[in-house]
Design a protein that fits this description.
Blueprint (H helix, E strand, L loop, with lengths): L7 H14 L3 E6 L6 E6 L1
Antiparallel strand pairs: 1-2
Amino acid sequence: MEICCLTDEHVAQTLNYLKVSGNKLGMLVNFGRGKLEYKRLVL
């Protein structure tokens, strides 16, 4: 499965993982495009 872009669903899922795990920092990274796409998420 190829991800074309980071969506609000990806952000929401990452935030849920952060809350459950107790971590405060998360990174969403997409290498599937010609240009690196990333988001840094902080609780």
